[in-house]
Amino acid sequence: MSRLVVVSNRVTLPAKGGAAPAGGLAVALQAALQERGGIWMGWSGKSSGSREPEPLAQQQHGNITYALTDLTKTDVEEYYEGFANRVLWPICHYRLDLAEYGRKEMAGYFRVNRFLAHRLAPLLQEDDVIWVHDYHLIPLAAELRQMGFKNKIGFFLHIPWPPADVLFTMPVHEEIMRGLSHYDLVGFQTDHDLSNFGGGLVREGIGEALGDGRFTSYGRTFRGGYYGIGIETAVFADFARKAASNIMVRKARQSIEGRDLIIGVDRLDYSKGITQRIDAFEQFVKANPGYHNKVTYLQITPKSRSEVPEYEAMQRTVAEQAGRVNGAMGTVDWVPIRYINRSIGRPVLAGLYRLAKIGLVTPLRDGMNLVAKEYVAAQDPEDPGVLVLSRFAGAARELRGALLVNPYDIEGTANAIARGLSMSLEERQERWRGMMDHLLERDVMRWCDDFLKDLQA
Ligand SMILES: O=P(O)(O)OC[C@H]1O[C@H](O[C@H]2O[C@H](CO)[C@@H](O)[C@H](O)[C@H]2O)[C@H](O)[C@@H](O)[C@@H]1O
Ligand SMILES: O=c1ccn([C@@H]2O[C@H](COP(=O)(O)OP(=O)(O)O)[C@@H](O)[C@H]2O)c(=O)[nH]1
User: Fold this and answer.
1) Best residue among 6, 137, 158 to mutate for probing ligand 1, ranked by most atoms within 8 Å of CB
2) Is the ipTM of this complex over 0.90?
């Protein structure tokens, strides 16, 4: 079996004391790397200021070598905050209005990819299989090819891929499309993303679809496929079963005092539809006076990418909005919305999901949305809650038992909340069983295996 080399912007180091790593993706990649032996390379998350970054820092854990590099302050600003998160992120989430094109940032993105390729090159062996993750690193394969590497290189995009009319508003769309053609396999989350990619390629005359998921463009032939990422379903369900005794979960249960709990969990990101969701909750309460003082909406929202202006502005907007709704709807003994700006550990999250009658997952656009899957996995089979899910999340292509909503339709989402809260036990169980069976079968290990099998085929 060939050695595996994973490259991603963020690298998850194993937790101290051998505790479980932070998320399903880390677990799957670590398992795949451990089995074959391998390297996980990426950005350390740190800046070296104006100094040239030190040589790669390598640490060995079992069969895996973690190789991390710092980036200069300018690199972080131009590559991560600039092009990745102010151009590719909004464009891939269909937000043309938020894309900020700067020549400096575009150049920085390609420069950092070249830098990372040069740092990776000395570690590579001839038959290594290389798996590159996400929008930060699209040009990496082209850089490696230019240096003469002929290895199998796969790419998985964790976020959506937009239709041509959106993508082609980006000045460097050509370089991005060319970058993807240098991979042997390009993986997307859903069939919609894959068809946007293939459709754009053909419509714009960049390449051809050869059938069987094969494409040709820029003189190269490669494959495209969709591989919806999963979670560690069984482990997460186990967290949720055990969480009832957790002190934080117990306190949460006591403090809601028998009210129905609605839960939302998202990074503070405009793609997650948090403001529309709060509007929908307000609309639900207004339209259903019987629920006054009978329902609590808990929104857990860790801060994210705060250096990017659009994210910083959101911190204020959402806090003000939650305060306004509480001011208008609350009473001396009822705070309708609890808004938390901190990250909560997954074992506790699992317990909170299980307490909640409704999982409210309403992004305006999302690659997959693991929270939707975690909410389902955490439910009590005897009394499962209802997932209210945006049709624009990748997860909606899989979780057919959810109540699908259009997050732009505030009244529609409000009605779905009401419907979920009054749904019969029988219907809840039937919907949940189908989703849970799917999640058990298509967990994160399966995602990893499917992608790597196709890459090596
Ligand atoms: O690394 P950050 O800038 O702090 O952002 C966190 C991650 O956000 C994105 O997550 C995506 O991947 C999930 C798993 O496949 C998917 O469920 C979700 O829909 C995506 O938004 C991003 O793609 C990651 O690279 C970031 O690390
Ligand atoms: O306070 C929090 C909020 C979120 N998460 C985790 O962060 C991930 C979010 O993934 P998702 O695909 O939903 O969205 P992303 O943030 O990657 O866009 C999920 O595994 C959540 O359990 C967490 O551990 N603590």
Assistant:
1) 158
2) yes
